[in-house]
Amino acid sequence: MAKMKKSLLLADIIDQSDVDLILSVELIENQIRETELHRHAFGQLVGSLEGLLSVQTESGWWVVPATHTVWIPPNTLHGAKSHGPFRGWSVYLDPKRSQLLDSSPKTFQTTPLLKELVHRAASWSDDTSQAVKSRLSEVLFDEIVNLPETLFGLLQPGLPSLKKMTDGLLSNLADNRSLEEWARSIGLSSRTLARRFNEQTGLGFSEWRQRARVLSAIEMLADNVPVTNIAFTLGYENVSAFIAMFRRVMGVTPGQYIQRHNKESIS
């Protein structure tokens, strides 16, 4: 494992599946970056130390605040965008190890131990013994397996009719149409739509739309969009209603969230 500085998410990382290793790479970015959709044979864990990262795949959308990580399974088509200055890291896992983790993307809280292990692995010198690397790799992998999951992701449905519906919602999160209205627009009963939506996304329709709004709000806060503008962009009649929703989901107001996020980015 060697220290490297590459483009965000390392689209040009070594792409092979016959090497049994964990490759740790520290990323340092000082500007907004965006990568095109790409895939690689390694599983990838991406962590944010400062700033916010958004990751898009064919199956969904994840945001990664400071002190959080996102898991991207092998051969998953994905792209990423940072919101403001971003500093973070990646750990690449060989396919064999990746099979022991989730087969779909997930977000996790970064533990202090994981952060230190990544920095240690990324700063190894060329003469570090393989035995030392192997021992630390095992500890690093054990820590990854036991990371606490967070809910900073949103799955898209696979059914074309439902995908068209959610694509429409994501392009206009101010759309307040009810489940019944959406059901009529795609020719389903509301009961059938509710059942299929839950089966496809793991969430009820209202919860899915609320999470989409929260994730979008987090991105806009990172881009320094005023709270008033965010509220109206997301379809709320007034700022108070938006703040109440955000506090109910996140446990803090938007202003408190930004303060905490900035503090975590510094630490």
UniProtKB/TrEMBL annotation:
<dbReference type="InterPro" id="IPR018062">
    <property type="entry name" value="HTH_AraC-typ_CS"/>
</dbReference>
<dbReference type="GO" id="GO:0043565">
    <property type="term" value="F:sequence-specific DNA binding"/>
</dbReference>
<keyword id="KW-0804">Transcription</keyword>
<dbReference type="InterPro" id="IPR011051">
    <property type="entry name" value="RmlC_Cupin_sf"/>
</dbReference>
<dbReference type="InterPro" id="IPR003313">
    <property type="entry name" value="AraC-bd"/>
</dbReference>
<keyword id="KW-0238">DNA-binding</keyword>
<keyword id="KW-0805">Transcription regulation</keyword>
<keyword id="KW-0010">Activator</keyword>
<dbReference type="GO" id="GO:0003700">
    <property type="term" value="F:DNA-binding transcription factor activity"/>
</dbReference>
<dbReference type="Pfam" id="PF02311">
    <property type="entry name" value="AraC_binding"/>
</dbReference>
<feature type="domain" description="HTH araC/xylS-type">
    <location>
        <begin position="163"/>
        <end position="260"/>
    </location>
</feature>
<dbReference type="Pfam" id="PF12833">
    <property type="entry name" value="HTH_18"/>
</dbReference>
<dbReference type="InterPro" id="IPR020449">
    <property type="entry name" value="Tscrpt_reg_AraC-type_HTH"/>
</dbReference>
<dbReference type="InterPro" id="IPR018060">
    <property type="entry name" value="HTH_AraC"/>
</dbReference>
<keyword id="KW-0678">Repressor</keyword>
<dbReference type="InterPro" id="IPR009057">
    <property type="entry name" value="Homeodomain-like_sf"/>
</dbReference>
<dbReference type="InterPro" id="IPR014710">
    <property type="entry name" value="RmlC-like_jellyroll"/>
</dbReference>
<protein>
    <submittedName>
        <fullName>Transcriptional regulator, AraC family</fullName>
    </submittedName>
</protein>
